[in-house]
# Entry
Amino acid sequence: MGGISPHKAAASCAECFAWGVLPGSCCRACYTFRGLHDRGECSACRRVVPVNKGYCRLCWLQALHDAKAAGHTHVSAPFLHAVRHQQLFFARMHRDFYRLPGRERLGKRGRRAAPAPAAAPERPAASWVQLRLPFHSGRDFVGFDRRRHADLTNPALVQARHIAQALAASRGWSRWVAKDVDRALVILLSGHNGDDRLRYTELAPALRLRGLTIERTIDVLDRAGLFHDDKPAAFDAWLDRKLGALPPAIRTTVEAWLRTLRDGGPRTRARNPETAWSYLNAIRPLLLHWSDQHAHLREVTRQDVLDATATLHGSKRHITLSILRSLFRHAKKTGTIFRDPTTRIRPTRVEPTAILPLQPADIHEAINAATTPAYRVAVVLATVHAARSKDILTLRLDDVDIGNRRLVLAGRVRPLDNLTRDTILEWLEQRRTRWPNTANPHLLINRITALETGPVSRVWITRAFWGLTATLERLHTDRQLEEALVHGPDPLHLTAVFGIHENTAIRYAHAARQILEQGAEQHDTGSP
# Structure
């Protein structure tokens, strides 16, 4: 067992109880499993360990054993639900079994057929390279064999390996990630001539087949100037899927409008891609309805717009008319239509939505949903400091001053209370234990961003609160409303405490004043 002292005594894995000479407190398989999944209570054995879909690795192995005994090749839900015991085993037993004399490893879990034994070929000269063709025909790395094709003296490979070592040291990669990147570079650059750039569509299938990291390898190749991103854009695929049912003339106009929203134009600033997504999702039913009657947007009349929005009310009608106005203005500006059918159609005035405080049960539900230290940090920052989700995911380590009990949130210095301090310390301890060498400067990280320097995604930080009444944004709103209720509906006080815009502060103060007046009226009515 490479990397483990020959004098180390055997022990039991802390998570799957496998017996053997272990590299640490757990076996290599459980170490990998721990890096891919968060801790939780296993639905079968009730232990608090890393779980995948509610079950720990030991229960997954037992379910796999039962499934194979029943003639199945995959684990299904009935086998997981039926786990009532576990068959213990020795560490690395599954891998070492196929290394015994007379045994031949047949592939992962024994499902792949054994390759036909090939005659040992002569190792080619180390100086060979892939010659450059006058046209690009694509490379195929799937059939790469390290014993026959590896050329560790290739200049492009030597340079890329040096870059990978420097990047691993600066990003805090584990030795397993660094080893996977090195294997990927050997596969991709052993026969490289030093001029061509590797394409995503060429390297992704080979690396995905071998279970090697694609993102980290691309980071190295991009720094070496050897990567060309030809991956189809997600925006283009989304457009094809959403606009496929529209007539060609309408589709061309709508697609040009959406691309202008996303990329900008000569006199138009670029918008967030989410703006284009939300705009099309809002009016797509109308476009499909008009497509049954018209073949071009120039055939849409003012009455069609009025009929389409007649059943809408309030903010939904206001938003729909605003999006249609944007579409037809762009079409008229580009000469696609002659007359804007949305001209002089005024939406009704929409009153701001009333801001109401959350119920204690809703807040407790959000607290119970925060089952990990990272989510608990997010809940505390939202409920105590009124932090938005964007402020939480961009918070950096140097923004938290534990010694001086200060917190810099959205550019404003705030005092660090005991609850926030204890919650952050709990998370920092888990972060240090799980990713001791990470170079990511952000406070909250996960298994993906621990190898990078960017923040976590908004989806990751809000996923635990989906479907709840008290989301992170609602908790942020409730905290600001609570401040106005406790200290009085003073917009200047809210602006000074939270640094919000004066219009937003006036809105919160108005909502607090209405709540206080209603409470006073109910108290006067109920008094003798």
In short: The first helix runs from residue 28 to 36.
